[in-house]
Design a protein that fits this description.
Layout lengths: L1 H19 L30 H10 L4 H10 L8 E2 L5 E2 L1 H7 L3 H9 L6 H7 L2 H10 L14 H7 L5 H11 L12 H7 L1 E5 L5 E8 L2 E5 L6 E7 L2 E4 L6 E7 L2 E9 L2 E7 L2
Antiparallel strand pairs: 1-2, 3-4, 3-10, 4-5, 5-6, 6-7, 7-8, 8-9, 9-10
Helix pairs in contact: 2-4, 3-5, 4-5, 4-6, 6-7, 6-8
Length: about 270
């Protein structure tokens, strides 16, 4: 009996330490009894999340609260998934909801396991959290979120409920400098637009287009990644400031394109 009493004391001590550290000691399943959606994972992806569902949850988190709820309740891990739109422009569902100001989606995702960030705090109007980040490291105000969207623009997406964050950022750092995207026109289209065959293995078609006065790039025939001009005929994609797109110009038109990401490099001739 004495030994059993000692074990009880040790167990209580262990439980108290774990509780003090915030470690959950009993987990209830909030989805117990809910219908289970059976998904066959592609053999080369398991146990990673299905890529199509990851892309969908990030995409719908920009606007479709009902679909977000369906996906997350079917597979809770999707709340903290992340999708690379290209060049390392990673976006989570919470990141998507934050830069378009979808408060109800952001709050639902956080409640189901999404990791809050300084960007989500800015959109949600949590000025104390934003201030704490920037007091610890003032240079964080230069850090951009998905697609190169700034902290200030995340705050403005929160509208009236984030006015205190907007005021704080403007008072401390002033207005933003420089355009968000490179403006396109007919001359820009003639100079850059077209299809480039990159020297990857296997070769990759890479497209450059002008749409809605923006220069866009990507692997799809209808690209959607915007670029910023770094120097004459040199750009970087929004969301990937370290990447360089260098156009080789002959007689006013791009003959080739070089894509550089550190030591990773691919060159391709303009074929269309």
């Amino acid at each position: 009996m004495a030994k059993q009493g000692g074990e009880d004391v040790a167990r209580r001590r262990f439980l108290s330490v774990m509780a003090a550290m915030g470690v959950p000691l009993a987990v209830s399943d909030p989805l117990a009894g809910a219908p289970v959606r059976r998904t066959e994972f592609p053999q080369n992806e398991f146990p990673q999340n299905d890529a199509a569902r990851v892309r969908e949850i990030v995409g719908v988190s920009h606007s479709n609260a009902e679909r977000v709820r369906e996906l997350v309740l079917e597979q809770p891990a999707l709340a903290k998934a992340s999708w690379d739109w290209g060049f390392g422009d990673w976006e989570t569902p919470l990141g998507a909801a934050s830069h378009v100001g979808r408060r109800e989606i952001a709050e639902f995702l956080i409640a189901h396991g999404a990791r809050p960030t300084v960007f989500s705090a800015a959109m949600l109007g949590d000025v104390d959290t934003v201030r704490a980040f920037l007091v610890a490291d003032p240079d964080l105000h230069r850090l951009h979120g998905p697609h190169g969207i700034s902290l200030l623009r995340h705050a403005r997406a929160g509208r009236s409920e984030a006015e205190r964050v907007v005021d704080y950022l403007l008072d401390r750092f002033g207005p933003e400098e420089g355009p968000f995207a490179f403006p396109g026109d007919a001359d820009v289209e003639a100079r850059y637009a077209g299809r480039y065959r990159l020297s990857t293995e296997p070769p990759t078609d890479f497209h450059v287009a002008v749409r809605n006065d923006l220069l866009l790039v990507g692997p799809d025939p209808e690209p959607f990644t915007r670029v910023l001009e770094v120097a004459q005929d040199v750009f970087h994609p929004t969301g990937a400031p370290a990447v360089r797109l260098r156009f080789e110009i002959v007689e006013g038109r791009a003959r080739a394109l070089v894509v550089e990401d550190g030591s990773v490099r691919a060159r391709g001739l303009r074929v269309g």
